[in-house]
Amino acid sequence: MQYQLSEEFQNIQAGIGSRAVLTGADVPAGAEELSEDRLVVIQAEELSAQKDELLAKFSEAMGV
To answer: What is the pTM of this model?
Structure first.
């Protein structure tokens, strides 16, 4: 897990087209630059409180 969050790994991911989770990491070629006003940050506690509702919506969307 530590390696996956390393700058080296995140830059490799960007090299294959995936967006990094680290601030300041390389942006994949052709990807639009994201600014903080376009990001949604959700706290783990908020997700946990909505777990059943979110799982039901996911199941419905995926047909499972």
So the answer is: 0.43
